[in-house]
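Our preliminary data section would be incomplete without showing what the modeling component actually yields. Below, a chain of 232 amino acids is followed by its predicted structure, encoded as tokens that our downstream tools consume directly.
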Amino acid sequence: MTITGEAAGVRFVATPPAGDSRRLVVVWHLLGEPGTPEAMAEALPLAGVDAWRLYAALPPWGQGPDQVLDGYVPLVESAVAAMPALVAAACRQLGCDDGPVDLVGGSAGGHIALLTASRRVVPVRRVAVVNPAVRVQAVVEASIETGALDSYTWTDTSTAAVQPLDVLARAAALDVPLLVVRGEGEYPAFRPLQARLCAAAPDARLVDVPGLAHMLVTGQDVVDAEVTAWLA
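Predicted structure:
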């Protein structure tokens, strides 16, 4: 059974636990593939996790010309800011308890999960991220390398705007169990930052998955098993 709804202005799909658990897992999809709550629920069903799994839709991409200031930064920041209201509304609608939640995300969704936990926006029990973005500078670099972005000129304004989104600078605040699943074909700009994050965070594990690219289109069963085991 899948429930489709909206909580605190955020569209979601949710799947119930097999038993009577009232835990909540919030999952954020990628900007690429899978790029919708429905697609993320299919890619990572987490059926072995005895909890409600809520797959939240990312905020819309901004319409301004600056891909960092008008696009990526407000998308991530608005998703993080929405978390308290989203969790509270989801708990009311789904009957979850008000205890710590688990956070899951891929790429930009992983960035949201990491910032939510490190900023302590909501109480968090565990975090699992797949090929997560850690710094916006690396997102820009990878976007240029893959042809998604022609070029980008950093300014004092954009440099300042991305500093609060630097998860590596906040690694010490990630004091909950953290799993980073990294693909063998992950973006070169992302890989060293992910490794440094796991080395700096107090309780982190890094798992490399052979054959997995940045987008979660292959190796889904392996990733699902790793995340399920981490959250069980």
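Helices lie at 37-43, 67-94, 108-118, 136-145, 156-162, 191-200, 220-231. Residues 117 and 124 are 6 Å apart (CA to CA). Preliminary results of this kind motivate Aim 1 of the renewal.
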